[in-house]
């Protein structure tokens, strides 16, 4: 009973501190107040308080620094870090690259349709997509670069869809696919390059999608996006599509 009470009190303190971190009251990168100060606000024993710190540290919400510059640094969760965590979970389930590709073929067209449905699309969506399209066209001679800009374009369709739950979850899958695509794009650049006419054709599809979004044609852009993804994920395609996804590749492109 005493042990259960100890853990319950630690969870209560962790719950309250977690809420303050998630609300932004405790800012990302800031130091938590010293233990003595916090224990005045949360009147629990030292072992109980330290257990609550351990809970928050295991969740990645704080990191405890030792020594003269010790203290607990606050880390507010960020959507951009979800891909690595999701990658760990999917890898433990032996999920393959092909399965991630299939998920994107269902999700990304829906995001493109949502972009077309935004009332503010002329201001928030279309200019960014046109900018990425220009970068794609300017890099057409460089396979590695053009693949990168293509992925930026597809990630933008998700990022700009306007629905935050969709943005967070779909962006994690996009980042996971992009991490693997970067790896094989550089390897095939010389041995099995994508023909120039195929690159130009992909660019034309992107331009058509932008026009459909600008016109508010949700059904049209969803259909074109689905057809384009089915082709783009087939040509070129990683030869190890059945390989289980590698979270380490996601970590390599993880932003700070």
Would you mind describing this structure in some detail?
This protein is mainly alpha-helical. The protein folds into two domains: 73 residues, Winged helix-like DNA-binding domain superfamily/Winged helix DNA-binding domain (Arc Repressor Mutant, subunit A), CATH 1.10.10; 173 residues, GntR ligand-binding domain-like (Four Helix Bundle (Hemerythrin (Met), subunit A), Up-down Bundle), CATH 1.20.120. It contains twelve helices and two strands, in the order αααββααααααααα. It has a two-stranded antiparallel ribbon with strand order 1-2. Strand 1 and strand 2 form a beta hairpin. The longest helix is centred in the C-terminal third of the chain and has 28 residues. It is elongated. The model has no long low-confidence stretch (mean pLDDT 87).
Helix proportion of residues, in percent? 55-70%
Low-confidence stretches: none
Q: So, CATH architecture of the largest domain?
A: Up-down Bundle
Q: Assign an overall shape.
A: elongated
Neighbour order of strands in the largest sheet: 1-2
Strand content: under 5%
Which CATH first-tier class of the largest domain would you pick?
Mainly Alpha
Structural class: mainly alpha
Radius of gyration: 23 Å
**Average pLDDT score:** 87
Distance between the termini: 43 Å
Find the CATH superfamily of the largest domain.
Answer: GntR ligand-binding domain-like
Determine the CATH topology of the largest domain.
Answer: Four Helix Bundle (Hemerythrin (Met), subunit A)
Count of all domains: 2
The count of DSSP E runs of length 2 or more, i.e. the number of strands, is 2
H and E order = HHHEEHHHHHHHHH
**What does the main sheet amount to?**
2 strands, antiparallel
Helix count, DSSP H or I runs of 4 or more residues: 12
